[in-house]
User: What shape does this take?
Amino acid sequence: MAAAQVVMSCSLLYYAVRAPGAIYIVSVVTGSCYGAHWAIVPSAVSELFGLNSFGALYNFLTLASPTGSLIFSGVIASGIYDYETKIQSATNLNTLTDGEALTCYGTICYSNTCGILSVLCLMAFVLSMIVLYRTKRVYAKLYGSS
Assistant: This one.
């Protein structure tokens, strides 16, 4: 899981530096990392917390997806997009008609968001390493120190 977080962080950082054609690479790599994450989470939950409360914990973890979507898309990404749109519309001399929506053009609209998400993925990696360090002795006792 930690490896997927590092790869996702690098992928988002690649988009944040505004590399040409990066959206295609970022989409594939980020989707693969999300898939790896959600494939690993059930095993990690059952291994760390046991099977007695697995159902409740897994249902709680499934709330992470809509909560993250609300926070990252609905607050962070849309806030930055709206900010960049206002900056672009202020520098644009054309006037908008009544029904026309403001639109942001270019990679600047999402590159800052990807930079923030890249940092958050690195923070998740650090937290994963802390969990690994804290459970290392337990697994050494259970399975031997190989």
